[in-house]
Design brief:
The chain is α+β, with helices and mostly antiparallel strands. The protein has one domain (14-130): TATA-Binding Protein, CATH 3.30.310. The protein has helices at 3-10, 26-39, 102-105, 122-130; strands at residues 13-20, 42-46, 53-56, 67-74, 77-84, 89-95, 113-118. The protein has a seven-stranded antiparallel sheet. A hairpin with a 2-residue loop joins strand 4 (67-74) and strand 5 (77-84). The N and C termini lie far apart (40 Å).
Amino acid sequence: MTDSLQVDSEMEKKGFVAIFNQPFDRERVSVCVESWLERFEKVEQIAPGMEFTLEIKSAKEIIWNANLQFRVSESDLFAWIYITLEKASMETTGFADADISFCLQVLLELPDTVEIIDEKNQRRLDELEKSGVI
């Protein structure tokens, strides 16, 4: 196998959509951020409307916007998290980096999670989109 093929297979993109029992508001987002801060090394927020990240040390530091984007990392692993206020879903992306991808790990242990769907399950995602959940 060539080096370029090895890199491509090791860098396979992975993603999940988590469904929660209630839409996100500031309090619910803050609970998620605090959970990540307790469990992982670093939480950053993409500054709304900007192209840079700010490290978050407490949920009180969140810059609020209707659409929020975070990067959670642990050592050399990271996941991007996308949240829209007033929606009951959260999306993650990252790489297939272990038995349980890091972009799935960030969703585990979050309160009020109803379902976690692999981004490749288009049939289920279409159902949720038609019902207005995502």
